[in-house]
Design brief:
Elements: E1 7-10, E2 16-21, E3 24-29, E4 34-39, H1 40-52, E5 55-56, H2 57-63, H3 68-80, E6 84-86
Antiparallel strand pairs: 1-5, 1-6, 2-3, 3-4
Length: 87
């Protein structure tokens, strides 16, 4: 039996507003009133989740053209600031 799939999504309490400038994303979490500058890769991950809903981690890595290890680092960081959650 393989490892259980981890499904990632935008966190329930996240109310995200975003902009993109010159290879950098700026996301504002309206409920927390926090603004974060994110890398191109992190911004693409969030956009995929915003546009397509819940995604399995391997599929998300493939569509974002990221190594799973890199995606894991990005998702862990985004979870710490309450932008994403998994089940």
């Amino acid at each position: 039996m393989g490892a259980p799939l981890r499904l990632w999504r935008i966190a329930d309490q996240a109310c995200l507003i975003w902009r993109h400038w010159e290879g950098e994303y700026v996301f504002h979490h309206a409920l927390a009133n926090d603004t974060h500058r994110l890398s191109e890769a992190a911004g693409l991950v969030l956009l995929q989740l915003l546009e397509h809903g819940e995604r399995e981690q391997t599929a998300l890595a493939n569509v974002c053209d990221l190594h799973e290890e890199d995606l894991d680092v990005i998702l862990s960081a985004l979870a710490k600031i309450d932008f994403v959650a998994w089940r």
